[in-house]
């Protein structure tokens, strides 16, 4: 006999998705790489202090850790990192987070020499098979003024000094050696641009054995962002750029560039971290590609046609299908870190009902094999609230327009919303702000929906995945467009009867924390909020942040200090007189991206004003929380906080937080 759901006040629903279960059974999966039939990936393990470990899956299906106990594979180049390990034919090279030095290990468990010195950070490696060297990004911290970035070639065998392959620009990424070892492709950009604003793709021809020779710019620059260069097996260069308004794919063959597929979809996300891969070369003619369509990631094969441009453009088009993009129907709504070998595609995929997993797709049969799940938390399908892509009306500079979001209804088979009650709504403002809400199963969101909250994850103007024009809605308007869209999303759901107007909360981390604090300060839509390592003082951020983002605000706000008045107008810290609802703030005390003083200034101002405020700081955490105990504290603390300010009693035992000024 099926149990009938019991009407229970929203927020007080009991749920098996507890903070303990989430941190116990959940790991982070990323950075897939292939070497023949062997698969490698990176696991971030909260129960091991948040350390990241390279895992190798051998051809026989067995796995082993390639990061020794006590080490943590993570690079701090650009502070956001990525590209923290690489493969050689006989081993692995990786970065130890503690001292940022790179070291080499062999498949036969011999440990090789250390490859870099302290003071020099490395990332995004590519192995040069012809010379037995490693090409990578170097970030030189020996200068007291600002780190210097360059591309270098490292000798893996003899221990000779690195060879500089490219320098002089502010940033470099994605060094990729051609199959015959004759050319090196790389990305570069300069202040004040971010890589998604303007980024150039260059090719350098090797002169002698290791020195760079002739250089040529292939794509990007002048308002165009190039990303993800790859070499096809025949030596053609493939990449994405957004000259069409979307990140579409292009091919460079003997001095000629040809578009491979012009569609109104992004085939790549912005380059926030190193080593991203949203497509891969199957052979010289075919690519396996992923793209974002309607808020959901898709997968397919792209037939690039003949390599010779004249033949591809001819009337006959021999062997070229009318529609070069073959869609592969799969359940995945999020896809990242895509790699291929001759027969399979491997990627990190998530569905609306299953946690992220490293999966292997047989390209012939289309059968999917799960190699590693992000956790062993088994969820009843009846408990899962799937992402529902929605569009809602908003305004941009006084004109009516449309924005996007993912909506999650409250759902729990044991409980129902009492008659006459509408659920509290939690509005999520993602980080970046040039990032995006993903539709794969997020157990953190299910933590809330299974307790009677509605959740909306907003892809506000400025978000990726909807083309360059949508991304540039935020140019000069950060703290305005994003705030408006988050408020409009909440108002839209209230108007549809899906949320209680008196119990609207907003939360976000980093840039999403800034949007949260702005929404609470400059709008009266929300009744409470949670800022996770969020920005409260834009001028302090412009002065204190790291090199990668040190000029980011010029595009989002305006040049500083020339526009200091505008910075002050958009900074919540200067307008706490307009803030009158409770706020909880979470902060890592070793955060170099958004330093702790950003949160501490806000807490002091709210404390002085007498507004209910809670502050939870974590020793040893940087930008984002990685340790199991801190993830648990943050999740339970936020639920406890909403219970106190919205007047419900959460089910179960929660770790309480101190809320000052709360009667």
Report on the structure:
- The chain is α+β, with helices and mostly antiparallel strands and 663 residues long.
- The protein folds into two domains: 6-16 and 380-646, Alpha/Beta hydrolase fold, catalytic domain (Rossmann fold, 3-Layer(aba) Sandwich); 68-373, Neuraminidase (6 Propeller), CATH 2.120.10.
- It is built from eleven helices and 38 strands.
- The strands form nine sheets. An eight-stranded mixed beta sheet has the order 30-31-34-33-35-36-37-38, sandwiched between helices.
- The two termini are 46 Å apart.
- Mean pLDDT is 92; it is low at 309-320.
CATH topology of the largest domain: Neuraminidase
Residue-averaged pLDDT:
92
Number of domains: 2
Give the DSSP E fraction (strand runs of 2 or more residues).
Answer: 25-35%
- Within CATH, the superfamily of the largest domain carries the name TolB, C-terminal domain
**CATH architecture identity of the largest domain:** 6 Propeller
